[in-house]
Design brief:
This protein is of the alpha/beta class and 132 residues long. Helix content is 26%, strand content 36%. It has helices spanning 2-15, 31-43, 91-97; strands at 20-21, 27-29, 50-57, 63-70, 78-82, 85-89, 100-105, 112-116, 122-123, 129-131. The protein is globular and about 40 Å long.
Length: 132
């Protein structure tokens, strides 16, 4: 009897999306970053995929950014559409990235993705970690 109730609740939960929608006040991509992410998603054969932006412990300042391309949002994610790209952030990371802008610089030295984060109290010289 209990198994029947669990099965029924999980099937109804799977029919509804487990993520919510946010806006660019959470995270915003520059046009350059949007073009690069779209290109990478296309090369991976997932044009409808998402860019996951997360904050994890580590790096020389205590926290670092982690970015990954995925097929779709996961349960509890916050989905933001910016510069033609779907970006997902988990609720815990959202506390650290709110108001951030992700840019992409195409250069031989110091090129790549750059995060401008107003919540970062300090950043290290590599630009990939921060403290809040």
């Amino acid at each position: 009897m209990i198994a029947g109730k669990i099965g029924a609740s999980s099937s109804s939960a799977s029919s509804a999306p487990g993520f919510r929608t946010g806006d660019e006040r959470l995270i915003k991509l520059s046009e350059s970053a949007g073009r690069k992410v779209s290109s990478l998603l296309g090369k991976q054969g997932r044009p409808q995929g998402v860019l996951r932006v997360a904050v994890v412990g580590g790096g020389c300042s205590g926290l670092q950014y982690k970015m990954d391309l995925q097929d779709q949002p996961q349960n509890r994610d916050i989905l933001v559409e910016s510069a033609g790209v779907r970006v997902v952030v988990d609720p815990k990371s959202a506390l650290y990235v709110t108001g951030s802008e992700l840019d992409y610089v195409d250069a031989l030295t110091e090129g790549g993705f750059k995060v401008k984060n107003p919540n970062a109290a300090t950043s290290c010289s590599c630009g990939e970690s921060f403290s809040a």
